[in-house]
Write the structure tokens for this entry.
Amino acid sequence: MTLPWLLSWQTWPHPVVCPTCWQTFERITPATACISCGRQLTRRQMCSDCQRWPSQPRFYNQALFCYNAAMHDYFQRYKFQGDYRLRAVFAAAMQQRLATLAADCVVAIPVTPATMQYRGFNQVTGWLGTGLNDPVGLQTIAQTKARPQSQKTRAERLTTSQPFSLSSTFTVTNQRVVIVDDIYTTGRTIRHAADLLLESGAKSVIGLTLAR
């Protein structure tokens, strides 16, 4: 605290997370991340997972943090136990990275209507606040999930059919689109969304996920 600050009578800014807790989250270094999915590597190249995907030069993903034990606990409390206040933990980090991406349009991976009714919020839009151009532009085809993605094996995830559609009033023709999601695991979900947007006329698609 400085004397000018004390004399200004400003409110003391309380950090959302204490330094001890914040240090448990592992940041991904962009300079040494996978050029396709954003996974943390020792040098910048394409990881073995991405080499197995068909080439898609107009899509790549960026991720902010590694999915470690601290991130697992965070999602357990925020996403699955529904503590909506915890959106504030990563809101600034997500919005700051989003501001660096040259996007004409930003969309979030949607949740099913049944999930929205049960949980009460979309965990992705919770981080972005008012940063979305059209949060309902991308929507789920199914009304409910038979099984959550978190309960599926890698093989089951990879064989999932296209789960999304675009609303009739939503257009992405010749636009640079950013898709925001929570976790990049196999990449199947966000790649489904990217494929749909590119087929609908998007110029390019960048994925932005909190964790990889």
